[in-house]
Amino acid sequence: MRKRLTITKLKKMKQERNAISVLTAYDYPSAKLAEEAGIDVILVGDSLGNVVLGYDTTIPVTIDDIIYHTRAVARGARETFIVADMPFMTYGIGREATMRNAARIMQEGGAQALKLEGGADIAADVEALVKAGIPVMGHIGLTPQSVHQLGGYKVQGKLDAEAEKLINDAKALEQAGAFSIVLELVTEPLAAMISDALTIPLIGIGAGRGCDGQVLVYHDILQYSSPYFEKKFVKTYADIGTTIRDAIHSYVDDVKKGSFPAEEHVFAADTAAFPTLYGTAQEQENSKESKDKAPSKTEARLL
Ligand code: KIV
């Protein structure tokens, strides 16, 4: 068993240029498999709204959704550092409400840290959470909870003023005590500049090779969706969607054909011990013979 990473170790990984691997997970088996595969950090992202709950955006995801899924992830990955997203409008809504919501996700969900979208605008909240003992991961660049404000899922920081704002946001989060920052959908040179400006790890998604680590969505790297839409910044490592669909198709076929369950899937009874229930050996033999002669249920349906 390996030991769970800490924010101190994660910061050291940046200094040592040891790239940090982060993957989302939303339930017990995905978390367990990610842990067994050696992931450094699991993020219970509000992307669960898109990839698990079938919403078009992350906006409908509630605090109860996040707590429910974080609890399952925490059961599956007991040795992995788990970060949970604070959902839309559960922070930046007044200090007391923000703190109460953060406390719920930590206590009821069992995460080790929280992630909040926003830069300098939420720095005061970040500072208060950190002072209360909660490790905070920032999230800047394309912030999906603001997709309508941003006008869609597009690359951020292309203009000078936007790039400057992102650098200032990153510094404000670091100053507020964030232990790391996710940077989403930003050009590679800008991401590298932001990483250089920080002492805390910058975790990129669609932000190129200059970051201190990478985060991707579980369902994206495994093509675990239907239909699967390719994204330029994602590398897919398996096509689980096709594997699952083909497997279920074979199961449906087997049930229809009557080839499942087969001999190896059924439980034999100790017929000798219960002659009253199952009949004598001779009666059983007779019944088997007459069954063998009779058309199967499937054959009868086809007759
Ligand atoms: O919700 C999420 O999965 C995220 C990642 C895309 C960084 O925020």
Structural commentary:
It is built from 14 helices and eight strands. It is of the alpha/beta class and 303 residues long. The chain has two domains: 7-237, Alpha-Beta Barrel (TIM Barrel); 269-302, no CATH class. An eight-stranded parallel β-barrel has the order 1-2-3-4-5-6-7-8, surrounded by seven helices. Helix 2 crosses helix 4, helix 6 packs parallel to helix 8 and helix 8 packs parallel to helix 9 (188-197). The longest helix has 18 residues, at 240-257. The radius of gyration is 26 Å and the shape is elongated. The N and C termini lie far apart (59 Å). The model has no long low-confidence stretch (mean pLDDT 94). 3-methyl-2-oxobutanoic acid is lined by residues 24, 43, 45-47, 85, 139, 182, 184, 205, 215, 217.
| CATH structural class of the largest domain | Alpha Beta
CATH superfamily membership of the largest domain: Phosphoenolpyruvate-binding domains
**Reported CATH architecture of the largest domain:** Alpha-Beta Barrel
Small molecules (ligands, ions, cofactors) in the structure: 3-methyl-2-oxobutanoic acid
Helical content class: 40-55%
Spatial gap, N to C terminus: 59 Å
Task: Give the number of helices.
Answer: 14
Which regions contain 5 or more consecutive residues with pLDDT less than 50? none
Mean pLDDT metric: 94
CATH topology grouping of the largest domain: TIM Barrel
Numbering strands along the chain, what is their spatial order in the largest sheet? 1-2-3-4-5-6-7-8
**What is the number of E strands?**
8
DSSP strand content: 5-15%
